[in-house]
Amino acid sequence: MEKLLHIIAGCAAQDRKYQQILYDRYYGFCLKTAFRYVDSYEQATEVTNNAFVKIFKNFSRFEVRDPAKIEMLFMGWVKRVVINASIDYLRREMHTLPISPIPESVWEHKDEQQSSDSSLLYKELICMIKELPPAYRLVFNMHVIEGYSHPEIARILGITTGTSKSNLSKARAHLQKALANQNVENILCQT
User: Fold this and answer.
1) What is the pTM of this model?
2) How far is the CA of 60 from the CAs of 53, 84, 98, in angstroms?
3) Tens of pLDDT along 48-72?
């Protein structure tokens, strides 16, 4: 906690050494967040790097209100910047590029609080989400994973609340169908 406060202070002072430490420490987290929104690893790296530029330019906007909860608050702020950078990227790039898998090295970035099984399930879930049409995937990520409300999603994306709800419903139907197909495949493989 004390170390993160020191890193944040260094970044706020535009110290390149501390910016590099922060970048190295949170790159995997940001890349995984961006990859939920965009189609390819290359796009995710571009979004992640754009997000870090925004983070470093806007450190004055991050306030340390409760030093006891600094990591949680900081990661929430970083996550919001990455999500907004992802949405900005999707708005700029209206065409859909082919989906390419994220390299295995990114999945190796371990979360100490996550078991191997849950890490594998997370990877499989993200792969299923990547197969959703872009509009469904965006609303699904924002509502289910990030916790945005439908009115918030509508405001951010410039759509109606009804469209947000409809896209979420369709995304869930697609995922349920994919899970059902996967379960059938697993049963067939076991027999």
Assistant:
1) 0.70
2) 13, 18, 38
3) 999 999 999 988 888 878 888 888 9
Instruction: Give the span between the Cα atoms of 163 and 146, in whole angstroms.
Output: 18
Instruction: Give the tens place of pLDDT for each residue, 131-181.
Output: 888 889 889 989 998 899 999 999 988 899 999 999 999 999 998 888 888
List the domains of the chain with CATH numbers. 1-104 (1.10.1740.10), 116-191 (1.10.10.10)
Count CB-CB contacts under 10 A for residue 41.
Answer: 17
CB 172 within 8 A of CB 186: no
Residues found in the chain: 191
Non-local (6+) Cβ contacts of 177 within 8 A are: none
